[in-house]
Specification:
The complex is a heterodimer of chains A (about 300) and B (about 375). With about 300 residues, chain A is mainly alpha-helical. Chain A has one domain: ABC transporter involved in vitamin B12 uptake, BtuC. Helices cover about 75% and strands about 0% of the residues of chain A. Chain A has 12 helices and 2 strands, in the order ααααββαααααααα. Chain A has a two-stranded antiparallel sheet with strand order 1-2. The longest helix of chain A is centred in the N-terminal third of the chain and has 32 residues. Chain A starts with a helix and ends with a helix. Chain B is about 45% helix and about 15% strand. The longest helix of chain B has 22 residues. In chain B, the strands form 4 sheets. A 5-stranded parallel beta sheet of chain B has the order 2-1-3-4-5, sandwiched between helices. A 4-stranded parallel beta sheet of chain B has the order 7-6-8-9, with helices on both faces. In chain B, strands 10-13-14 form a 3-stranded antiparallel beta sheet. In chain B, a hairpin with a 4-residue loop joins β11 and β12. In chain B, α2 packs across α11. The radius of gyration of chain B is 23 Å and the shape is elongated. Chain B has 2 domains: about 190 residues, Rossmann fold, CATH 3.40.50.2300; about 130 residues, 3-Layer(aba) Sandwich (Rossmann fold). With about 375 residues, chain B is α/β, with parallel strands linked by helices. Chains A and B meet through α1, β2 and α10 of A and β7, α7, α8 and α9 of B.
């Protein structure tokens, strides 16, 4: 393999990987505060892309993206308030079914609003054929946008959880809900906030990804499966693990095409997931003690 | 006065007998099984809308030889099981004289035997060659054969001096059938496939595989065979990788939404398609020109959406059927014979000439090579 081809695969892999990681982090944020997997996570990504594409007709790109992220966050809050908040001690199974239901609901609503056509945001810099040379490889500048925005989101999130008081309250909620309530933390609000936050990062990722992958009403499902794989791989609830696992999966997928036919790309991802779960049932970076704390 | 229940039933039955024959004489029942909703709705939707429009138009003009058409459209949502049960219902309960559809090849194959057994003409709107090869006496189809598209592309490659190509296809029925056809036909044109990759129909980024085939310096052109958004993604990823070999696509690219999705990367893509896409650019004397222009303006005026070649398949099925009923009368057997005798009937997909051995009626000339220029389809000329 030439160095040029290596870099080309690497960038393709990091692009897929960042996307998977962001969806996985969305899963983790909600999992940490509620102990459930929000299967509508992929739909947030689709909503971000779709809403910004619609808004673009009325306003410049940056404003459209900001507003789209805002609207998706509001949708996230609405979902939590309408479907989740009033439940008293719901079982895990019930929550899973509710979130699957929500994801189908959003998907069908999107089909009615936007139809089945494929749309995409314009490239942030240049157009469909603009390329940048990096170490002999040629990539779209949008790839750099995706990697940059995803990195920034991860950094800001870790700052948020590490230094702000709201972030600490959310973590407290994750660590021990009863203790958090005893300390006077309004855990119900924290759950709403977790939905808002994961809707927001999903939507932003959906916007930066849209020029590359295009947006369609049913984009979310595939992404949710990949994101879920990555979240499990990285250890549920572990956001650093999600980033590492996301990049790992993306890069493996990209490089796999050089050895096996492209058609096996998906199979490879799932095979690796199974293998890792056999060897390390709590994920690559998850610990048994941590997993034991959760309600699962 | 008290009327007994039996008397009442007899009276109603008598009334029915009096009125019913009058209704039968005026209506010719035609069935349609189309994927109006579901994953193949991009085919079945325009087909069903086209049929509704044409039936209204024909009946407003007084129907065929004074008899009105009653079109019963059933939505299969792309499912072969539903297609089978609807087809049986149409044949056994509604006594239709012929069935238009289904929209997809899989559904059509599951109806082939049913149409044969019931001796009911079936005019499919699906493309696969197996529908009419081997010929089943009651089964016809309107879209051009996939192999015509591949042959047309190879003819063009030969003119350009392209010998070694990379083939990409999606893992759908369309993609896989195309891949087999390509592998079979390529040697006839002296073309060698040096890279052959299949991607998932849901693929959203193909930069890795593009990098792989780009690394093979022998590749002189890329040929992509799919009906998914991936068609635009291949184009984008190729140009982003700074690769400018010619990109050929199948007739599946003949949908302006893929051009829009590919943006400027779509410019210069070469593909074969029916003339509907370039109707306004055809010479006035072209036998398809007038009907294409009328169909497009009627359809777009009525439904406020762009007319597609898929709606055209429905148009052609209806045109063939009504032409056959006109000459043969509304009888299953006579319709079948009349279709086989149709000669140079202009349709949206081409000029139809059927025979006992040819139940598609089109030739390679039904396709025209096109390209994209300034975001529009134009005829391809060097």
């Amino acid at each position: 393999m030439t160095a040029e081809l290596f870099i080309q695969y690497l960038f393709a892999g990091i692009t897929y990987g960042s996307m998977y990681a962001i969806v996985a982090i969305g899963f983790n944020i909600i999992y940490n505060t509620t102990g459930i997997i929000n299967f509508a996570q992929g739909e947030f990504v689709m909503l971000g892309g779709m809403i910004s594409i619609t808004l673009l007709r009325f306003m410049p790109l940056p404003l459209a993206i900001v507003l789209a992220v805002g609207i998706t966050m509001a949708v996230g809050a609405l979902i939590e308030i309408v479907f989740i908040r009033w439940l008293k001690e719901p079982s895990v199974l019930r929550m899973v079914i509710i979130t699957i239901g929500i994801s189908i609901l959003i998907r069908e609503a999107a089909l009615h609003i936007w139809g089945e056509s494929v749309r995409s945001l314009p490239y942030f810099v240049g157009n469909e054929i603009t390329t940048t040379g990096i170490l002999g490889a040629r990539i779209s500048p949008q790839v750099i946008w995706v990697i940059g925005v995803c990195t920034m989101m991860v950094l800001l999130l870790s700052l948020f959880f590490g230094t702000t008081s709201v972030g600490r309250e959310m973590r407290a909620c994750a660590a021990n809900r009863t203790a958090a309530i005893l300390c006077g933390i309004n855990t119900r609000n924290m759950v709403t906030l977790s939905f808002v936050l994961s809707a927001g990062i999903g939507a932003l990722a959906g916007c930066v990804m849209s020029p590359i992958t295009s947006t369609q009403y049913d984009n979310g499902t595939g992404l949710a499966i990949k994101g879920f794989t990555v979240a499990i791989l990285g250890g549920l609830g572990n956001s650093g693990g999600a980033v590492a696992a996301g990049l790992l999966l993306g890069i493996i997928e990209a490089f796999s095409v050089s050895v096996v036919p492209l058609a096996f790309q998906e199979a490879i991802a799932i095979a690796i997931l199974l293998l890792i779960l056999f060897v390390r049932p709590n994920g690559l970076f998850g610990s048994k003690d941590l997993a034991g704390l959760k309600e699962f | 006065m008290k009327i007994s229940g039996t008397k009442m039933i007899v009276a109603v039955a008598a009334l029915c007998l009096l009125t019913a024959p009058a209704a039968w004489a005026k209506e010719i029942k035609v069935g349609a099984v189309l994927a109006v909703t579901g994953p193949a709705s991009f085919l079945g939707g325009p087909e069903a809308r086209t049929l509704e429009m044409l039936v209204d138009e024909l009946n407003a003009k007084g129907g065929i030889n004074g008899d009105k058409i009653q079109m019963i459209i059933k939505d299969t949502a792309g499912s072969p099981e539903k297609a089978v049960s609807f087809a049986k219902q149409l044949i056994e309960e509604e006594n239709v004289v012929a069935i238009i559809g289904p929209s997809t090849s899989g559904e059509t194959m599951s109806l082939k035997k049913i149409a044969e057994d019931a001796k009911t003409p079936l005019i499919s709107c699906a493309a696969a060659e197996v529908i009419v090869n081997p010929v089943a006496s009651y089964v016809f189809k309107t879209p051009q054969n996939d192999s015509f598209a591949a042959q047309k592309i190879f003819q063009e490659m030969k003119k350009m001096g392209v010998v070694k190509i990379a083939v990409l296809s999606s893992n759908t029925g369309f993609g896989q059938a195309g891949k087999e056809q390509i592998a079979k036909i390529a040697p006839e044109f002296g073309i060698q496939i040096v890279e052959n990759e299949v991607y998932d129909k849901q693929a959203t980024d193909l930069s890795a595989v593009i990098a792989k085939i780009k690394a093979n310096k022998d590749v002189q052109a890329v040929m992509n065979w799919s009906i998914e958004p991936a068609q635009a993604i291949v184009a984008k990823n190729m140009r982003q990788a700074g690769w400018d070999v010619p990109l050929f696509q199948s007739h599946g690219f003949g949908n302006i939404k893929y051009v829009e999705a590919g943006g400027i990367a779509s410019e210069g893509i070469i593909f074969p398609a029916g003339r509907l896409l370039i109707a306004d650019l055809l010479p006035t004397a072209h036998p398809q020109k007038a009907l294409l222009m009328k169909y497009i303006s009627d359809y777009e005026g009525k439904y406020k959406e762009t007319a597609s070649v898929f709606g055209g398949y429905g148009y052609d099925a209806f045109t063939i059927l009504t032409a056959a009923i006109k000459t043969g009368g509304a009888d299953k057997e006579k319709i079948r014979t009349a279709i086989e005798n149709i000669k140079t009937l202009p349709g949206t997909s081409g000029m139809y000439t059927f025979s006992a051995a040819d139940h598609n009626g089109l030739t390679i000339d039904a396709f025209e090579m096109m390209t994209v220029k300034d975001g529009k389809f134009v005829p391809y000329k060097k």
